[in-house]
Design brief:
The protein is an alpha/beta fold. Helix content is about 20%, strand content about 20%. The protein starts with a strand and ends in a 23-residue tail after the last strand.
Length: about 190
């Protein structure tokens, strides 16, 4: 079982972002999946709107899993991102005061529910304490591996021009994806 996962809760992202991710996965990623799923249940009322990502570790405990944020551009093969061990991105573009990881791409095989054990034990505390969101929570509570820049991803905030990496992380610059005539527009689902 190979599963591609995304999360679309709240009102920040409309359906186009979900459809666009599937379009890029289907046309550029080279991933052969059995299931494309989008989590839409808004069960965590957090100020950051990111803790709903944790649902994937409770729901999907089998097979090979890969998660992508909705604000990414996929323009090349992503099979090298598939990992057995719980793996997140190294946030090489961030200032040192933040966490050194980013959850825009996550992969694991089998059961990764250990990621949310502490969270479920103290949800109210975690929602209040982890002001930098799930990246901070994962960094402080979980064992993880990291994709490095050499694995083929960059942040659009530091590399806004096209390079030959397969994935661009837009890191909260999601409105840029709807900009007309940008270099990345050719990879996106046409808006109707």
């Amino acid at each position: 079982m190979m599963r591609v996962i995304c999360v679309r809760t709240g009102t920040k992202y409309d359906k186009w972002y979900e459809d666009n991710l599937k379009h890029m996965v289907d046309n550029y990623s080279g991933l052969e999946y059995d299931e494309f799923v989008c989590i839409k249940d808004d069960i965590y009322d957090d100020a950051y709107g990111v803790f709903n990502k944790f649902q994937m570790f409770d729901k999907y405990k089998d097979g090979q899993n890969i998660y992508f944020d909705l604000d990414v551009v996929i323009k090349g093969d992503c099979n090298h991102f598939l990992r057995d061990e719980f793996t997140v991105c190294h946030a090489h573009w961030r200032e040192p005061f933040h966490t050194p990881l980013n959850s825009s791409i996550i992969s694991w095989k089998g059961d990764a529910s250990h990621v949310t054990e502490t969270f479920h034990e103290e949800e109210d505390y975690c929602l209040l304490w982890y002001r930098r969101g799930i990246d901070q929570y994962i960094y402080e509570n979980t064992t993880f591996n990291m994709y490095m820049k050499e694995d083929g991803f960059v942040s659009y905030s530091t590399v806004p021009y096209e390079t030959d990496v397969p994935v661009y992380l837009f890191n909260q610059n999601y409105k840029e994806l709807k900009r007309n005539k940008a270099w990345f527009s050719k990879y996106l689902l046409e808006r109707t």
